[in-house]
Design a protein that fits this description.
Oligomer: single chain
Number of strands: 5
Order of helices and strands: HEEEHEHHEHH
Helix content: 25-40%
Strand content: 15-25%
Strand order of the largest sheet: 3-2-1-4-5
Largest sheet: 5 strands, mixed
Radius of gyration: 19 Å
Number of domains: 1
CATH architecture: 2-Layer Sandwich
Mean pLDDT: 82
Length: 189
């Protein structure tokens, strides 16, 4: 803003062209569909064959509609599966908090905690149990953000079996779960 250049103007023109060309597009939510967040989080352990870093993946749904996702290689090697899963669950929790804030601003506040479906029972136990575990000392303090979200009732952590974990598609090459499995999982919750 203080020292704009020609490239900045080119970028602004591109954004305006995009907005003009997509003004008739949007998300359609039928009147009977619930405006409720649901999330799935997963991680592989040392999945990258070159660096042995794990991959974080999560999906966010609003009702039955897919609205947000992420797949990213973690920035360090994890020594255990819990060390890979817990940060993945924590980053998904951060996205839930941001989406809850956005939904509240547009007058669709979430009245119940958002289910964050995880398939790692150790990650669920660490997040939901306030007792300090000696074996979790190595997990960074910022990852315990998820424990606070559980305590405040922002999220719940229902277990989802690995064969119904749709976030596998972002963490494993041959993940076979589909978004139609999401509906079955929600019905079972």
């Amino acid at each position: 803003m203080q020292a704009p250049h020609h490239l900045h103007l080119v970028a602004v023109h591109r954004i305006v062209r995009y907005l003009r060309g997509t003004s008739n597009r949007g998300l359609f939510f039928p009147s009977g569909s619930p405006i409720r967040l649901n999330a799935f989080s997963d991680s592989d352990w040392a999945g990258c064959s070159d660096t042995h870093h794990s991959v974080t993946g999560w999906y966010m749904f609003l009702g039955e509609f897919f609205i947000s996702w992420k797949s990213k290689k973690q920035d360090r090697v994890s020594k255990s599966s819990i060390e890979a899963e817990y940060p993945a669950t924590s980053t998904a929790c951060s996205e839930i908090v941001a989406l809850c804030g956005l939904l509240a601003k547009i007058e669709f506040p979430q009245s119940n905690p958002t289910p964050l479906h995880a398939d790692n029972t150790c990650a669920i136990q660490i997040a939901t149990n306030p007792v300090y575990y000696e074996r979790t000392k190595h997990i960074k303090v910022d990852c315990h953000y998820i424990r606070e979200a559980v305590d405040k009732g922002v999220i719940t952590l229902p277990h989802v079996s690995s064969d119904l974990q749709i976030a596998d598609a972002f963490t494993k090459i041959n993940g076979t779960t589909t978004t139609s499995d999401f509906s079955r999982q929600i019905d079972a919750s």
